[in-house]
Design brief:
The complex is a heterodimer of chains A (374) and B (315). By secondary structure, chain A is an all-alpha fold. Helices cover 69% and strands 2% of the residues of chain A. Helix content of chain B is 50%, strand content 16%. Chain B has 12 helices and 12 strands. The chains are: A mainly alpha (374), B alpha/beta (315).
Amino acid sequence: MSEASTPTPQEDERIKETSALRQALIRPELGGIVGTIAVFTFFLLTAFNSGMFNAAGVLNWSTVSAQFMIIAVGACLLMIAGEFDLSVGSMIGFSGMSIALLSVTFSWPVWLAIIVTFAVCIAIGALNGFIVVRTGLPSFIVTLAFLFILRGFTIYLPQTLERKTIIGGVSDVAQGDWLAGLFGGKILGGLFTWMGNAGLIGVFERGTRAGDPVVDGIPMLIVWAIVLVIFGHVLLTKTKFGNWIFAAGGDAQAARYAGVPVNRVKILMFMFTAFCATVFATCQVMEFGSAGADRGLLKEFEAIIAVVIGGALLTGGYGSVLGAALGALIFGVVQQGLFFAGVESSLFRVFLGVILLFAVILNTYIRRLITGER
Amino acid sequence: MKAIVTSFAVGLALAVSPLALAAQADDDLSYVLVSHAPDSDSWWNTVKNGIALAGDQMGVTVEYRNPPTGDIADMARIIQQATAAGPNGIITTLADYDVLQGPISDAVASGIDVIIMNTGTAEQAREVGALMYVGQPEYDAGFAAGQRAKDDGVQTFLCVNHAIQQPTLVERCQGFADGLGVELGDSMLDSGVDPGEIKNKVQAYLSTNPDTQAVLTLGPVSADPTILALEENGMAGDIYFGTFDLGPEIVKGIKSGVIEWGIDQQPFLQAYLPVVVMANYHRYGVLPGNNVNSGPGFVTADALEKVEAYAGEYR
């Protein structure tokens, strides 16, 4: 009796054994990891002496990758939730222009201009989401409309108010502003000065800044990218809300039956995408000191490309923020690396297309391994 | 993954080999030209041909770079990239002073010589520490064109602007209006870059504003569809038509009398001269003492032969 009442724990025949190695390898980021290794190996071999891996070169491709990462995190979460946002590029132009107009033309304090712009843009994101969930129209169409609407305003407003399409002078008014520094500043300046003095990184050779290091700190743009990636990753993989995002994108109706507030999840993700686009624009305006009506053209596709290279599924319900971040890194490194390698710049798109195609094929194969679908 | 690397390597080898052949430099000078033009702007082909020819003649390596969508912030990254790669010189446009002055000053401070071409002013070129400026002062060129049109009796006009986000193009329209002595007002049309749209917008504007006496286009992108629009609504040859820049269709238009004049800023010189100047500067230390105005030159129906032969290639 006693033997029967305490049965030895038997192996559950419903659970399939997988090796630890296989478990470690089979993850949505695998494509991104392999791609990153391949891309870095490639450029280390072909462009090592071209300046790509000196301080200024590393900063260059890191900055470009960080730009892609910021918008890719938003696009990734939204895509996993089953929707698209094609208005990201126009939103970048619009929010940058908004900050410049409010702070320069209307002489508002820069911190207020930034906060108001964030509020307006997140509200537009919410409107995007609201229209999508209320009408049931594809987000592709709704956000395509906003692509034109926002770009139109971005050209019309400065043209009407200032008779020009590039609003400069933001650097002057942003001088010493507490919030502006959070987007356009640099950190660890002391470390780089030390490295410059110690001869670890290059220094300027002439002019008033001779002797200063060529890289004088890590731009906040990169800090924002890292923070957003960590936030997105934790949100998606460690929280209940993360599960809701997967559920909303996987099968919205089934998720609703299970009690997931699908509409709220989707609207929040549209707002988050708008937030990411505004972060991108604010960093750009604060770094360069001006906003232009043509900023952010086609950035929505760059975000989507990074996300897809990173292994997310265009139809929603599957993907990874880390993957998207690696996708952004690959994209940035390839884009700048081809310049370093001296490739004819008109061929850049050819390489981009080839990489995109291979990444998608590889990711599809990996996904089939994971999910077991045929 | 191996397949990716292999195909990548093969592709790269194919792409790099013509460059490697072209560079027969004995002292390994290399120059990078960075423009603000999107891929769609065919006018810059002349610039590409200009640096290629100068590179061949001077025996130096030249490369052409541009932001695919014309986004100036992306252009700043390309200049930073070129700086990190450390060529002997960078030739660049100054399409937006606020954005580009930082990266360009960094390049100068890193020991790379810079020449500003095409867009920007002599003053701005001096401020960023460039050796010189080679180009056409845009407002002045527009102003000169406006004065010329005024002398021909023009009072009202339409300015077809295909890239309204570029301040330099707005300056051309503004200069033209000031040269005429009239307000710019609604005379500037935001046409976009699509030929079909440009054509329809021009026709629509001219039918709602029938008292328009002159049309000004700002380059082949807006001029070519405008020629078609005028031919279709019967105003070709009747309305006063001037344009900035040259191209095959514009040259035909000037020849047939549809276009009164074209303003040639001679982009060939803007690309060719900086390479020659810098190569000689780096080899022998000689440098011209002033900026170079490559334009404006008015091209009319007289003396079109050379222009016609090389339009779109070197003119």
